[in-house]
Sequence to fold (310 residues):
Amino acid sequence: MGYNMYVWRFVDEEPAPMDETAIREVLGPVTVGGLPPTGLPEAWDLEAEDGSGSEVYGDALGLTFSRFAFGGILDHVAALVRRTGAGVMPQDCPMILTSETARGHLPESWRAEAIVVAPEALTGRTIQLLISPQPEPRRRPILPRFPYHPNPVATGSVTTSDELCACCGQERGWVYTGPLYAADAPDSGICPYCIAFGKAAERYDATFADGIEGDVPDDVVTAVLRRTPGFPARRSPYWLAHCGDGAEFLGFAGAEELERYPDAVEHLRRQWPDEHVDGFLTALDKDGGPTAYLFRCRVCATHLAYADVT
Ligand SMILES: [Zn+2]
Ligand SMILES: [Zn+2]
Fold:
C-alpha cells in the first residue's frame, strides 16, 4: 500500500538512536539478501516467512516502512518496537508505545493521543487493528426476565436486530420472531421489552400464545399469554401448567432430546395411550415434522411436554 509507518524512539521530545544491534537482529533475518556485516543500508527490502514484505529506509534515528503488507512482516515491526523501546506510528494514526515512560518522552503534542500497550500485547495484529479497525461486535442490552420463557434467544423466539420496534419505535437490539395473535397485528417486529412490559399486548390487544392448559390464577394467564414471548407450533401453541402455576417453556424437542427427560416422555405417553405411541415418540424431531414442546414446572421441576399430533 502507498502508506508509511514510522518507528521512532524519543528522549526528551527529540528522536534518539535505537540500538542498531537490535535492528540488525530483528530485521536481518527477514532482509532480502541479508544485511551487510556492519551498518545499515540506505534502503532495503524485507520479506517475512508468510511472504508479506515491506521496504525500509532510514537509520537508527528513525525507520520508515513503506509499501508494507498486512501479515507476518508487522510482527517483525512489533518485535523491533518491543526490543528497542521505540514507538510505531502508522501514517495518520497515533503512536503505539510499550511504556508510560516512553509516552513522557514524546513531543508534547503527541502524548495525549499515544496508545500505551503492554509489551506482550504489541503484535503485528495490534498494529494492523490500529490502521484498519475491525468493527466491534455490537453489545446488546440484557433482555427482560421472562419467568415462563426463560431463554427466548435459545428457543429462537427472540433474535438480534438493528430495526426499530413497531410498538415503541426504539431500536432495542432485539426483535420478537414468534407468533402474535391480534386483529390488528403490526407489519414489522416488536421488541421483547414491549412484550415484558405489556405494552404490545395492550396496544394491539394481542396474545403470544393461544391458551394455557390447566387451572391457574388469572394473573398467571395474563402473564403467560400477554407478557411472555410465544413460540411457533404447527398447530396453535398453548402453554402447559403444573402445581397451580404456568410452566416454563424450555424449547423444541425431538426423540433424541427427550431421552434426557423421562418425566416428559411419561407425560407424552399419557396423552396417547395406544399401541402407536412408541412409533410416534421415535418420529419426533426437534427441527420439523412432529415436534414436542418441552416445559418444566416452576414449582416441582417436573418436565412436561406435548407434541404435534400427526
Ligand atoms: Zn418495543
Ligand atoms: Zn409441578
